[in-house]
Amino acid sequence: MSSPQETYDAMAAAGAAKIMMPWHKQAIQGFMAGAYVSLGALFANLMEANFTWYKGDQFEVAPGLANLVGGAVFPIGLIAIFMTGANLYTGNCMYLIPSFINGTVPRGRAIGWLAFSWLCNFAGAGFVAYFMAYLGGWTSKDPVQAFVVHNAVKKIDLKWGVAFLRGIGANWLVCLAWWQAISSKVRVTTTRGSVGVQTVRYLGVHWRSKRCRVPERYLS
User: Fold this and answer.
1) How many Cα atoms are found within 13 Å in the side-chain-facing hemisphere of 134?
2) Does residue 185 have a pLDDT over 80?
3) Which of 160, 162, 172, 167 is nearest to 197 (CA)?
4) Nearest one of 27, 18, 14, 17 to 122, comparing CA atoms
5) What is the pLDDT of residues 194-206, one digit of tens each?
């Protein structure tokens, strides 16, 4: 493992290189990062939905076990992002800090890079969600469909303050996983660190209600 100073220096160098990368390459890397994290989320939902069982017009969820399995599967997307060097907005927020502090890159370009990575991530995630999850039929049948719809509705119904704080907690842990991956000198350790932190993220920050009301249209 690298020392904290060595990790910071490596992160600063990587961040400067990412920020100054040509825009067309950033578009591709941002799109792929969104696709990878969306695939991780899709796999996690497919696995978690199988820890459900019907009881009349409702289905029960085993939240602890479902979160544990989802937390073990979701990091597949983050591992792919780190191994391929793709640009994930969450990690880019961390990469941005040393460049701002050290003044190694133009600040206007750094902010533009951050916004551009968010847009490209959204495009990549939307591509996977629509063309693979929706049109591909992965989320068109119960219990996956009811599970995904229920989670989407609950997240939308969160109060802004609650969503904001949970977003900070979740992305803080993503950045921690990135820091551990950068500090590691062995890829096996890198992968293990990412899986471990993200499993904690699912258990501690993500939530699942115990009883889920399934809309009637999904029971026909």
Assistant:
1) 9
2) no
3) 172
4) 27
5) 555 544 444 444 4
